[in-house]
Amino acid sequence: MDLGEFRNLIATVRGEIGKVVQGQDAIIDLVLISIFAGGHCLVEGPPGTAKTLLARSVSAAMALDYRRIQFTPDLMPGDVLGVNLFNFQTNQFHLTKGPVFTDILLADEINRAPPKTQSALLQAMNERVVTLDGTDYSLGPDFFVLATQNPIEQQGTYPLPEAQLDRFLFKLVVDFPDRDTEIAILSKHARQALQSDMRNAGIRPLVTSAALAEGRALIDAIHLDSTILTYVVDLVRATRSDADILYGASTRAADALASAVRVRAAFEGRDYGLPDDVQALLVPALRHRIILSPSAEIDGRTPDEVLRNIMNRVDAPR
């Protein structure tokens, strides 16, 4: 596979997912970038904005295993990771693997689980390994978490700690579609049976584990010259000295942003990164990694607004 073939594959995958998820092209692109970059995605939006449908559609376009966990306040770490159960017939412990042992994991309403259960995902997301009773179990290189959360409800929810937020490559904010898109969605559904769902939409599983590995090999060869790397570092460092930001982004954030830039370049059929790639990915890569100052919050500023102001201040390489 060369860069041209890879670009065509991604365009075809976008089209397949677009059969079901309409009006979210930018979000779909960022999810695919995260998968090929080896990161994870946090999707935030009000109910009924196709967050779960997006995850199911992406999984349908990938020839990979997919499982879903509905996070609830009574969910325990063992319900996510699995447990060792004693078998009285063999007098041995037997591992019953939890839903985390998959390729694509939908962590639905992740902020409804208590911190103890949320932290169970930290090692899995960061190392792609689960440790149970002192034994390490690999989750494989394709492991990807797409977590959703509802920003409206506060009762019965637990805000994600900064350490866990930093494990997500992107935080994607899904809003209601525009009027024309909503009309198109309703028109499409009006021509279908009332009980039809995404599984009848004919999404083809195009991305196999081998294709994912080939794509990542191409991405590894993408060159980021010193000016692009310096630009990334300057933007991240600017978050640490901005008056509107109490705590800025980490070195891990800079490294994650640089990785995503390489993937976006490959998606465009280029073997080099551009400042445009950095600017397109800065906000989703950092909006969850900064904490605004109390004065900025009182003034009603948002992380997106503050990051765009920083992007306007820091000179891009020419």
Order of helices and strands: HHEHEHEEEHHEEEHEHHHEHHEHH
Radius of gyration: 20 Å
The proportion of residues in beta strands is 15-25%
Q: Name the poorly predicted regions.
A: none
Structural class: alpha/beta
Strand order of the largest sheet: 2-5-8-1-9
Main sheet, how many strands, which sense, barrel? 5 strands, parallel
What count of helical segments does DSSP give?
A: 14
Fraction of residues in helix: 40-55%
Organism: Rhizobium redzepovicii
Domain AAA+ ATPase: 37-178
GO molecular function, one term: ATP binding
Protein name: MoxR family ATPase
Account of the protein in words:
The chain has 318 residues and is of the alpha/beta class. Helices cover 45% and strands 15% of the residues. The protein contains 14 helices and 11 strands. Strands 2-5-8-1-9 form a 5-stranded parallel β-sheet. It has a two-stranded antiparallel ribbon with strand order 3-4. Helix 2 packs across helix 11 (251-267) and helix 10 packs parallel to helix 12 (275-286). The radius of gyration is 20 Å and the shape is globular. It starts with a helix and ends in a 5-residue tail after the last helix. The model has no long low-confidence stretch (mean pLDDT 89).
SSE topology sketch:
Layout: H1 3-18, H2 25-37, E1 41-44, H3 51-61, E2 66-70, H4 77-81, E3 82-87, E4 92-97, E5 104-108, H5 115-118, H6 120-127, E6 129-132, E7 135-138, E8 144-149, H7 162-165, E9 170-173, H8 179-190, H9 209-220, H10 226-238, E10 245-247, H11 251-267, H12 275-286, E11 291-292, H13 294-298, H14 303-313
Parallel strand pairs: 1-8, 1-9, 2-5, 5-8
Antiparallel strand pairs: 3-4, 6-7, 10-11
